[in-house]
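User: Okay, second chain of the day. Same drill as before: sequence in, structure tokens out.
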Amino acid sequence: MHLFSYVIIFILLVANTSVFGAANTPSLSNPNLTKVTENIYALIGDMDVPNETNGGFICNSVFIITQQGVVVIDPGGSLQVGEMILKQIRKLTSKPITHVFNTHHHADHWMGNQAFSNLSPAPKIMGQYYMKDKAEEIGERWLGILEKMTKGKNQGTQVVLPSEVLEGNEKMQIGGLTFQFYHPAHAHTQGDLAVYIPEEKVLIAGDILFYLRTPGFQDASPSGNAQALESLNKLEFNQVIPGHGPVTDKSGIKYMLEYVQLLHNEVKKYYEQGLSDFEMKERIDVGKYRQMSGFEGRFGINVNRMFLEIEAQEFAED
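Assistant: Same drill. Structure tokens below.
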């Protein structure tokens, strides 16, 4: 990704807003721990961008206590967030951390790898191979960006990449539980992993699913993202943990699918009228979805990505 793209993403992040009041903001001192099942816990990150108050704790992190150890999915965006997650784990169990999985390359989801790599014995840290390549590409630059945004709350964080890579469609037995991995070709990114645990009837969707928060589509295929959600929705689960937003169920997937479909219909309508993405942005009617967290900062890029997909399809059909 070129430096210009990082600047655009940084501007979009700064333009975001939080739906939490300051006193209730999830942060390093307010981990917002949610018990999902007897074995699965989620730490629900702040809806805002990394800042001094939340300390960079903005994505949802998950840990699963198995018979033999603990599996962590998305260890957060800094050493400090990773240490906070580890502290929450240690309140519940002394079992070793055996695996850490990174769902994609966006830095808020994996920079906490360092906290777990420091353990002895260190767990396996794993991600899809595209995720690892992109994380290596962006890591050092994002450390500097996050340091400015959090006013130094991530100081000391180092880039720790996955030690092993996944194709993305494996099935693993870990500590008496089944971990099924799903890798869509291009959804939120080209290196996404979703994790399904059938015994618990829980889906951990990563950023393939945003719930009550405007999706980050800067690296996405909106149509691919929708196809991935439709495929995942065929699984048997009672609860789904999104990459951002509260724990939900199949209604949360429906919520995002309807947003993407509505966005497609509106952009296609104005595209056929000859409007540019910039011209159509303020005319598009997405109803209740304007209330999503971060809408003003992210909606423009959502329109742009959908516009480019529709344009590419139109040219392909000529």
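The longest strand covers residues 202-210.

User: Thanks, on to the next one.
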